[in-house]
Amino acid sequence: MVNRERPVQGSSRLVLAHFWAAFATFAVGIPLGAWQMLVRSPLHRWVDPELYYRTVTEHGTMFAYVFPTLIAMGFGYAVCAVSLGRPMRGLPLAWVSLVLVIAGAAMALAASAAGKATVLYTFYPPMLGSPFYYLGILVAVIGSWIWIGLMVWHFRRWKVDHPGLPVPLAMFATTAGALLWGWTSLGAGAEIAFLILPNAFGWIQTIDPGLARMLFSWTLHAIVYFWLIPAYISFYVLLPAAAGGRLYSDKMGRIAFVQLLIFAMPIGIHHLFVDPEVGAGFKFLHAVFTGMVVVPTLLTIFTICASLEIAGRLRGGRGPFGWIAALPWDRPLVLATAFSLVMLGLGGAGGIINMSYVMNATIHNTQWVTGHFHLIYAGAVVIMYFAIAYELWPRLTGRPLAAPRLVRLQLWTWFIGMLIVTLPWHLVGIMGQPRRMAYYDFSNSALSSQGIWVSVSAIGGFVLVFSAVLLIVVLLASHREPATAISPLKFSLAVYPPRGLPKSLNSFGIWALLVLALTVVNYGYPIAQFVFLNGTAVPAFQVSTE
Amino acid sequence: MTNGNRPSPNDSRFAMWIWTTAGIFIVALAVGFVWLPSTQRGAEGLDLWRAICRAVGLPSGNVEVARPIAGQPASMVAWTTQTRRNLAKGDSNAGARLAAKTCNPCHGDNGLSTDAAIPNLAGQSAAAVYKQLEDFRSGKRDAAVMGVYVSPLSQQDLLDLAAHYASLPNPVGDALSTQSSSNTVVGGGVEVGGPRGGRGPCGAGH
Known about the structure:
Radius of gyration of chain B: 28 Å
Helix content of chain B: 40-55%
Shape of chain A: globular
Strand order of the largest sheet of chain A: 1-4
Order of helices and strands of chain B: HHHHHHHHHH
Number of strands of chain A: 4
Largest sheet of chain A: 2 strands, parallel
Strand content of chain A: under 5%
Order of helices and strands of chain A: HHHEHHEHHHHHHHHHHHHEE
Distance between the termini of chain B: 81 Å
Radius of gyration of chain A: 23 Å
Number of strands of chain B: 0
Number of helices of chain B: 10
Largest interface: A-B, 40 and 37 residues
Oligomer: heterodimer
Helix content of chain A: over 70%
Strand content of chain B: under 5%
Largest sheet of chain B: none
């Protein structure tokens, strides 16, 4: 008799539902992305741009608002139950939250599939689509706020019940991610609620694109860190144990997550470097704070490499590099982490170019940017989502993972496919290829040299489709394995487990105030400028095709 | 379990981190709103306050640009039929002789200057060269440098110079313009647009 519920404290079905909803979105979104790359390449004839942009809207909506949110929520519930060591409260609310996210996503995607909202996931006012599209996204985001509430509530309740004890790192980090999402989703939320919907319903006829972009930039950068946090959590709390070692430093993890919370949000104007309405001083200020994000990233890379070295040496590795060979490379988490760090390194280096005011001018709005965020998010982050799923699956189903060789093949093909997709994108970006184009005339001599790279990149897209199919096959097949006793999910121990932590590394109150203060000084004037400046609004442009 | 090592509510890290963040903020303010805007190009003649205003994004902080005087046209050149007929009367040989004395020391023997601050004129359209010269002569364009050379010239001299520079081959322009066109500088744009930037051909609409 196998007790299936025990390992994740009664939340198994909830977590599994989130992961399956996420991977269902994933299974639809990945082929769309590959198709878009194919039809823009010299390998295919041109297609109707409307169809192209419609699928880009869907791909972006799924992968920006739905897929990572569901993974963060599902993983958050697992962390909450396992790290706090007791069943979650408020499970019905968690199910309501999931239903809202799925219903909102379905509404937005239906509006977009019907051709009523071909505005891309970044909305781009003054373009205006069907109100159902925006309402759907709003409903999905509000649904995820219930998850934020549940995470914060469990965090506080555990602290009240355990005065003076350090909150487990996994829960501390999950709460940091929840708070970050709550704060950062307000920007795009305000854009939809106050600028776009009143237009979409026809109550007002003008919209301020500058203000809309400013509010979206509030969300646009920090949302990436919200996507990143589950991957970072797996680095800190799953990887060291999976590699057979211990976490090098628990405190370093807390410092990194607090810094991500503080510095992820008041930096978004680096997306508006070429907006003439924004003062250059604010662009510089945000560039400086964007640079600060390098600190928690490097802290994490250092801590993870140190933890892996501990594991490698415990396993008998010797010499300056012998510990690397001694690591258990057959375990999905270890393999995925190595791939993730390579992609994070390449993407991070590119990101430093993006945030530099002057260098940005060379690659702004080119395919370089598309390459950058796919390498970081779809590469470094999403490959860790796979690894998390592989780690959780046996604990959720009570059955071992099917076909470990296919699991490794899946991770390898995702890594290689993502490099084949994104490195040529960076290259053609430097050659000047703009992004968000439905077709390119490669017969023109000015563009013909880019054709080969775009073709290579499109082929990479199909390597990713193959990898995505493998993922779904392995996860589905794992449900059919014979049930066995599975060791419960345990989070990594630190070399020196924290006993009494200073308040700064065990709570968020003051840090939340610091985030608020930085938001006011970094965003207050740029937003107020649009609100009080007259003559910046223009008539909205209805895109839906009748 | 915590054996006395309980967290102190007065955690000095809060103060340290908040002051570090505030320090970064103040340094970024000083560099981004004061130092850079008052030393970058185009900031000459701006006082500190206006330099800060410009960095903040206040329109009043912009450098004064020359505006046409009310009631007067920005240029005395009008694109009338007569002007076009005059352009056709330009003698490139006469222009070449005049350029050898007047223009070549700065703009180069072939209309290609060696100094990045001095524009290349080879292959430039006759209409463009003529308009600039006429604007220098009439004082409609700031003629602090060019006025010395242009003011003694007649209208026919200007037309000759324009014809001369239009007749010179422009290696850069010819390489860029792969399509045949009467105008080597913008012809590609007129006929095929700017495919790299996704721009449609100008000729499609105009």
